[in-house]
Amino acid sequence: MNHEAPLSPRPLHHLSDVRHRVMTARRLREHGVSASEAGERCRPGGPWQQLLPGVYLLHTGPATSEERLHAALMYTRARTQGIPAQAARRDGAPYGEAMITGLAALALHRFTSAPPLLRLEHIDVLVPHTRRLRATGFVRPVRAHSVPRPRLLTGVPVAPVPRAVADAVAGLTDPDRIRRLLTEAVRFGHCEAPRLLRELTRARLLDRGPVAAVMDVLLAEGRAAAEDRLYATVSEAALPSPLWNVELLLPGGPSLGAVDAYWPDHGVVVEIDTRARTRRDDLVRDEVARKHEHLEQLGLAVLAVTPRQLRESPERLADVVRSVLAASAERAPGAYVVVLPR
């Protein structure tokens, strides 16, 4: 067979994009290349190679990391036959709901503790639980009852950091590697500790010794970082200086609880909410809600802010605090409270 002969009225030699260097059998048929012709071209000495079932690399030599990523996604997409189009594709995404997760995703998120893509033996692909895909070649499907909205990195849909970390940790046994991944995720600002905790809880990974040991430390670090951002937000917005990290009490009465910032002349309280939405924090969350309700009954205005708000929209948060402080003049005076340093 002459491998250089034209293949179809829509020849392939002009295609240079990675999704044209890697093609599924279905796409090749659209270019007039039958399954038998594709198989012939993948024989020893031929110009192509088969990377995965139904997925072909249209050149010789090793596949690049980019080609491997797209091939893994194409493999999952090629197995959507029989699934309604709206279920297989979301927002016009070429790979439907499939996305890269695990260590490959963390490499794309630029984690220094994740191996380079070409050194990974497997590429994890997150897919809906309805997909009955089997691991094959270098592709390892990870099924989920609900898939998150991916980020597009280097043209590839990638799971958000908390989900990618959880999927990576689930496949690791080395405590040091687990600790490095978790630490880098929070300490270097890839994600907030509560969001990571929520994903690890969902994946039932908190009972693993290396995970539990490091998460308590990271939660404390995450709170300290959020406190620093709150200090900076107040300072940079030139807001009145509050009393920081104090405990409030009724005169001669019980403690009302500790708060992160308190403006006594305005009766305004700000608290940083670093709890994750997990069963572990349900009781704490209910207790905090009761505390806030009690403070509001005493005439104090309470603002609960999240680390994400402090990180992503400090200017907007400063405007909210400024508005609440200004509105204090229109409120009835609150109860007198005693302030103690923590």
Write up this protein:
This is DUF559 domain-containing protein. It comes from Streptomyces thioluteus. By secondary structure, the chain is of the alpha+beta class. It has two domains: 63-221, no CATH class; 229-341, Endonuclease, Chain A (3-Layer(aba) Sandwich). It is 41% helix and 18% strand. It has helices spanning 18-21, 25-30, 35-41, 65-78, 85-88, 102-108, 161-170, 175-187, 193-202, 209-236, 282-297, 307-312, 314-327; strands at residues 22-24, 49-52, 55-57, 99-101, 123-128, 139-144, 151-153, 156-158, 243-249, 255-263, 268-272, 301-305, 338-341. The protein has a five-stranded mixed beta sheet, sandwiched between helices. Strands 1-3-2 form a three-stranded antiparallel beta sheet, sandwiched between helices. The longest helix is centred in the middle third of the chain and has 28 residues, at 209-236. The termini are far apart. 33% of the residues are buried.
Which helices and strands appear, and what pairs or packs with what?
Blueprint: H1 18-21, E1 22-24, H2 25-30, H3 35-41, E2 49-52, E3 55-57, H4 65-78, H5 85-88, E4 99-101, H6 102-108, E5 123-128, E6 139-144, E7 151-153, E8 156-158, H7 161-170, H8 175-187, H9 193-202, H10 209-236, E9 243-249, E10 255-263, E11 268-272, H11 282-297, E12 301-305, H12 307-312, H13 314-327, E13 338-341
